[in-house]
Design goal:
- The protein is mostly helical.
- It has one domain.
- It has 3 helices and no strands.
- Helix 1 packs antiparallel against helix 2.
- The radius of gyration is 14 Å and the shape is globular.
Length: about 100
């Protein structure tokens, strides 16, 4: 059995269909970041680059808090996105700057 393709037609690094189209869908990114830290793999690097690109274009308040353009701040959005940003900082030392 093969993993389902993601939006670009490539297999997902987390081995099932996954498409990042909303903040709440970033919940698996911390797992991928941890896998990348434990055992570097280009497939994880590509996925994390997509995550960073998504977060860079996502709407946010002046203080950097992410929110949904049509719905406003939803409690699950920071709950999903912040763990990834913390793990990325711990792994790379890079601060996330909007």
């Amino acid at each position: 059995m093969k993993a389902a393709p993601v939006g670009d037609g490539k297999l997902s690094p987390v081995e099932f269909y996954f498409r990042i189209g909303a903040l709440w869908q970033t919940g698996l990114a911390p797992l991928v970041e941890e896998r990348q830290e434990a055992a570097w793999d280009v497939k994880y690097e590509e996925f994390l680059a997509l995550m960073d690109a998504f977060l860079a274009q996502e709407t946010h308040f002046e203080d950097g808090t992410f929110y949904r353009a049509k719905k406003g701040l939803m409690t699950d959005d920071p709950y999903m996105a912040v763990p990834y940003l913390i793990r990325k900082w711990k792994h790379t030392g890079e601060e996330y700057v909007l």
